[in-house]
Amino acid sequence: MPYSLSLLDKSPIPPGATAAQALQRTVALAQRAEELGYRRFWVAEHHGNPTLASTAPEVLIAHILAHTTRIRVGSGGVMLQHYSPFKVAEAFKLLAALAPGRVDLGVGKAPGGLPLATRALQWLHDAARKPDFAQQLADLDAFLEGTVIDGHALSGAVAYPAPPELPERILLGGSADSAALAARLGWDFTYAGHFNADPANIERSVTAYQQATGRPAALALYAFAAESKEEAERLVGALRIFKLHLSTGQSVNLPSLEAAAEFARQAGVADYRVEETRPYVLTGTPDSVRRALDVLSQRHGIQEFVIDTPVVGFAERWASVELLAGAEHAVAA
């Protein structure tokens, strides 16, 4: 089954580098991805993290659009819980008017940062009136379409400008419930396999979406290629994900034990546990990574993979992107 490749970039700041340098490298990588035929280039949203420079994806998307000509550019994703759906609709309609047919609005449910950053982002929110995520997403969809229903508290509010083509709408999630929500709203769905690569959960989620819509889901995952398997494994290293489970019922994925402890401290929770896992990373030579993608594509009906490169060194990330693009049968024309 043919499939396309896309990229997710978090603008990592390597030791000794600056945020400005990391962002310059993200733009350069987007330009190279366009030359190599990648379908999309997504940027992330992270808050309060000194090692990641991408805090405002809509700003970075605009800059990348201005420095590329063909590749689709978008968010992977906007953390909707922090924002007014009306404002998100305005921002992405504006982007779509600036670059018609090239803008992706990917939306996620996670906070994208530690509790103090979340508190700062939501400082002026009226918690008593804040809807749940499903309602926020439905409101965002309505403002994009211009179809806020009568009787809604915000009926009559119109998000401008009106672009020639609306941004492509993608829900990023890791469960069958997320897949069902995307299907109900008519959104595309990308399964976040870089956070939960459990094969059974992938199967449940992508199958739920495919059965509800007749369309395939996309799959985001960690992948890294080098000239040899040994070199690839050395560069990826002992990558771990630490899933923090708070006594409040909240759970969140974090990059280290220290980050998990700090999250619990900022949340004011002393009773918690941490589940350490090794994320699934397709690691090896370009041929071996492509064979693994072939298997996943055939098993789950995946027609697009969004590659998240779990290495911070710019030269190594660049080389991996070039090596993976060597699969002519896998990269969209």
From TrEMBL:
Residues 14-298 form the Luciferase-like domain. InterPro entries: Bact_Lucif_Oxidored, CmoO-like, Luciferase-like_dom, Luciferase-like_sf. It holds the Pfam family Bac_luciferase. It comes from the Bacteria. SUPFAM superfamilies: Bacterial luciferase-like. To bacterial alkanal monooxygenase alpha and beta chains. PANTHER family: LUCIFERASE-LIKE MONOOXYGENASE, N-ACETYL-S-ALKYLCYSTEINE MONOOXYGENASE. This is Luciferase family oxidoreductase group 1. The lineage of its organism: Bacteria, Pseudomonadati, Pseudomonadota, Betaproteobacteria, Burkholderiales.
